[in-house]
Specification:
single chain; AhpD-like; 65% helix; 0% strand
Length: 139
């Protein structure tokens, strides 16, 4: 059974989610699609979890980071390019340019995997913000 991490980390706001069961079900499906898809392409499940953990940490959510516990892959040019892109899009998305996508290509990351990476970054930042918003609503 997949853990509904949004509800788990929403704290006192979790009962509000009962009114948005459709949204929560979609969030769970999307989490599975980006973190543990049947076909991970060129981003392994372990890499995806390591990226998710990093994004949670960049957003200051250690509980969410713990949910995605994974060992980071060995550092190489490819992984360094991925992390640089993850950090940029997570912390300064408006600064990302075409050149940043080109840097991923230059590191040997195929177009479909750039799309997969973008989906993962987008979902994780959505998840972080939903949790933060729910916590703020009851603070």
């Amino acid at each position: 059974m997949q853990t509904d991490i949004i509800a788990e980390l929403a704290g006192a706001a979790a009962p509000v989610l009962a009114h948005r069961a459709d949204l929560m079900a979609a969030s769970l499906r999307n989490e599975r699609a980006v973190i543990a898809p049947d076909d991970p392409g060129g981003l392994s499940h372990a890499e995806r979890r390591a990226i998710a953990r990093r994004i949670a940490r960049l957003n200051g959510n250690e509980a969410l980071a713990a949910h995605y516990a994974a060992e980071a892959p060995p550092t190489d040019t490819r992984w360094s390019a991925i992390l640089r892109h993850v950090d940029l899009v997570t912390t300064h998305p408006k600064d990302a340019t075409r050149n940043d996508i080109q840097a991923l290509r230059a590191a040997g990351i195929a177009e479909p995997d750039i799309v997969r990476l973008s989906q993962l970054i987008a979902f994780m930042n959505y998840q972080v913000r939903v949790i933060a918003g729910l916590r703020a609503a009851v603070a």
